[in-house]
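Exercise 7. Given the components listed, write out the predicted structure of the assembled complex. Treat all entries as one system.
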Amino acid sequence: MSETVISPDSREEALHTGHHPDLQHHFDDMEQQKEASSLGMWVFLGQEIMFFGGLFLLYLIYRMNYYPIFSMASSSINVKWGAINTVVLIGSSLTMAMAVHSAQLGHRKLLTFFLIGTIVLGAVFLGIKTKEYHDKYVEHHIPGTDSFHFVPEPGLNGVTEEQSEMLSHNPAFQRSAQIFFSLYFVMTGTHALHMIVGIGILIPMVILAWKGRYDSSYYTPVENFGLYWHFVDIIWIFLFPLIYLINRTPHIG
Amino acid sequence: MPESHYINEDYGIRSWLLTKDHKRIAVLYLISITFFFAVGGLMATMIRIHLLTPTGNLVSHDNYNKLFTLHGIMMVFFFLVPSIPATLGNFLMPLMVGAKDLAFPKINLASWYIYIIGGTIAMYALIAGGVDTGWTFYTPFSTVYSNTHVVTAIVGIFFAGFSSILTGLNFIVTVHRMRAPGLTWFRLPLFVWSMYATSIIMILGTPVIAITLSLVALERVFHLGIFNPALGGDPVLFQHMFWFYSHPAVYIMILPGMGVISELVSTFSRKPVFGYKFVAFSSLAIAVFGFLVWGHHLFTAGMSIYAALLFSLISFLVAIPSAIKTFAWTATMYKGSISYKTPMLYVFGFLGLFCIGGLTGLFLAAVGLDIHMQDTYFVVAHFHYIMVGGMVMAYLGGLHYWWPKMTGRMYPEAWAKLSALIVFVGFNLTFFPQFILGYMGMPRRYATYPPEFQVLHVLSTAGASILALGYLLPMVYFVWSLRYGQVAGPNPWGATGLEWKTTSPPHKHNFDETPVVTEDPYHYTPELEREARFV
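Answer.
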């Protein structure tokens, strides 16, 4: 039908001289479109906060219930790799911020470069995470499996040799340790899944950026993706101390 | 009828399945949720037939468990939650704010596909053998002991939840960023306010059930112990997290209905809604307070007495905004020029049934009484008075009211009035005996019962068959009206609101030119009275 009847474009033309090719038909102008997209992303992130919030709630409650065990189990996770990953991830947030900045200035090559940099750093993070998961597998720290066996390291968290030996054969202790490792895998796994989705979005974005799809008048997707990426980064900023660093207070109840 | 409109602007299945037009997506949703309503209704019918006799002779006890579980899953997640938002909301929100479409048309279409994927998975769970955990998925039964398709059903619900998050996101952004010039917040129709409040709950509540049910699925598949007491987990924690969404979800289901009632009561009383700002803010108050009352589902599950008293108190408080609305609607009718058209009959039905449902909710919010009533038919009757007596009544009323806008044709008034009456009678006959059953101690979810309860159960089953007829009639005459209904014209009710200022059905881009709003909502003028051919 119907373009003849309605002439949807006449109004934009009337309101705005020059019709931006990226302006969708149902918006009045680019500013309205950008504001809508940006608000949409913030609302989506609000939803994400509640999603992760459920996990953080569980973690905090079980950490209270089983504090000494959580503390011992946390000591078995490699702080060195966690710290390196934190730096890598903050680095990727920096490259992402630089990418948005380059898009605003309309620097096509710089934008592509920084987006690729973000992908590389994200991939490094996931690689290190895989290595950590593999370590847990080798150490029989996979919850829900028959071979699960957690021996608290003597000398850490005030655990003596005898206590360690005793706890490693205590079923209640082993069950509670499994809850820690369940939450460890679910929380870091959900976070990693968000990173994988992010990289999945970044790859076509790099191609589009290289082809010159974004310029200083239209870069909303880059900016919104930046919000998402920083959000995933912030989740890690909470995960790292909660999971890796809680044994830094060496007292045991 | 206008020469070109959203239905005839393009033909063929592709033009519907790949549409980004909010009005066509609303129609897609309307057809799909009607399907799931029919599936859920079929389960309900079988439950009621089974309960005709004290020994329960229709299905085995295992299958009975699956029937009420699937009835709950289908009705809650695939009918009630999307019902008004995804159909009437999708159709009307852009029209009411004077926009050409929702803020994100592609996301809107995606939400329908995600809903269909979720629905397909849930249907697969049903056909493959069903689920028997109850729609509440309480652990550790759902994670350890049940031998049914729990994970499949959860995946289906996960998709449905994601779809409703996207709908809510679209509405929030549309209300904030797409309003026509001059359409300030306090000029918005109250339907928009209530959809906005609903969207907030969808955004903040749904992700919590998503992660909670995901954990149940992970726990089942990988034998984790997060909610399993035998493995050091806490099953009551599951209940807290489940109801943190599922109680606010009750308001996802009823708030849109309240929005519809506000529109209807004004149009058919020819008066502005009494206390507009109070009605608008009471929607937001319900959204906020609704997040603070989940604990009243756990009074008997092991809860500190102080927490129980606090949850009880807040549950009483959440009745206040609902009461404000009910009084405002009643006051709107006072000295109004009331016309008894079908949508208005549904308003009357809603008001009475919602009052009964709401006031019996206060019985259950009282800690002491709840210990007695917990898990009895009293609870079942209470929430069906809200969900069916409230929400489905409002949904049907809204569907009749906006049907001429959606299709350009009127439904047959006499048949519609008859079916509204049948629904009202059938509903009360089905569920009022259940209050008495529950008070006498009949527990919910039981496949058999003592013989002295039989009379009330037979009454309930008889009511259900009347109710079924009341639901089948509209399906028939709505389809009939598509071809034979009277042509409605742009504003058959002489109603206010931007959706009535365009053609019926509206064309693809809703308005010829962006409307400019200069007056308060529900501003009835003599011109409108002349337009109102069908009032």
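Discussion: The domain at 13-531 of chain B is CATH 1.20.210.10 (Cytochrome C Oxidase; Chain A). Chain B has 18 helices and no strands.
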